[in-house]
């Protein structure tokens, strides 16, 4: 009896852990440190020293903020998920809704505090702005044009959060080409969010086409940055090569979604576009140095690996 009870408790613990991993979208969490690294790369491109400990702390803060956002997303969407996604942790009863709400708020606050402790007031300000945008998206703006832009803006702010890792108060202001990069990423994610709005039910081809347009805009953004900055041949090759990989990876998922827009094609396309952001970040980061691009791409390993076990949406 004791052995069977112990096994049951162990299985229950594993089930709870899996439920919380699904709640925070654990594969997606590994798409956020690349944003931070890209921000650090943009600062490094100005000749400013980047604090590696600060960069690491900001990466943790970014993951906490993202986890808070997905948790609050499910908190606010509990009634909708009960109809459309009953397998999710809250409607399935594996995690109480009130617990999810408290956890989401705690994660957002924790992310702001970690950012503040890691890189000072400027980082805390960026993190607080990011947490505010996340909360507004989850609670008020979701499903509207303002909501799509809010989600995109959250990713852009995540990149700017990484710029706070500049090691001195005399950090040089970012040039115009560098400031355009978070904007390009924001527009790409806004387009993907538009496609994802009804991924569990019915999606119009126009929404998939919008995501494809976001992909092309991002590709043009990388090419424009290459032309503007004139990096070395090696950096150019990395940036262009990763951009090609990004285009092929997203295109292979968006093609079937456009041809037959239904949950079993659109859902995977959304997941692919989220994970492919890591490659896009790497392409932009390559402009500052190959080492930055490689550091970004490392996060593809856990992101893709965990996506085989947990939903990416």
Task: Explain what the structure shows.
- This is UbiA prenyltransferase.
- It holds the Pfam family UbiA.
- The protein is an all-alpha fold and 313 residues long.
- The chain has a single domain (27-307), classed as Tetracycline Repressor, domain 2 (Orthogonal Bundle), CATH 1.10.357.140.
- Helix content is 79%, strand content 0%.
- It is globular.
Provide the fold topology.
Layout: H1 2-23, H2 26-29, H3 33-45, H4 52-76, H5 78-84, H6 97-119, H7 121-141, H8 145-163, H9 176-196, H10 205-229, H11 233-259, H12 263-285, H13 290-297, H14 300-307
Helix pairs in contact: 3-4, 3-8, 3-12, 3-13, 4-6, 4-7, 6-7, 7-8, 8-9, 9-10, 9-12, 10-11, 10-12, 11-12, 12-13, 12-14
Organism: Halococcus morrhuae DSM 1307
Subcellular location: Cell membrane
Protein name: UbiA prenyltransferase
Quick recap:
This protein is mainly alpha-helical and 313 residues long.
Summarize this structure as a short list of keywords or feature phrases.
Tetracycline Repressor, domain 2; 0% strand; mainly alpha; UbiA_sf; 313 residues
Q: Average pLDDT across residues?
A: 92
CATH superfamily placement: UbiA prenyltransferase
What gap, in angstroms, lies between the N and C termini?
Answer: 41 Å
Strand pairing plus helix content: what structural class? mainly alpha
Number of domains: 1
Task: Bin the strand percentage.
Answer: under 5%
CATH T-level fold name: Tetracycline Repressor, domain 2
Helicity, as a percent range: over 70%
Main sheet record: none
**Nearest-angstrom radius of gyration?**
19 Å
* Number of helical elements: 14
Order of helices and strands: HHHHHHHHHHHHHH
**Low-confidence region ranges:** none
Mass-distribution shape: globular
User: Total strand count, please?
Assistant: 0
CATH architecture level-2 label: Orthogonal Bundle
Quickly name the level 1 CATH class.
Answer: Mainly Alpha
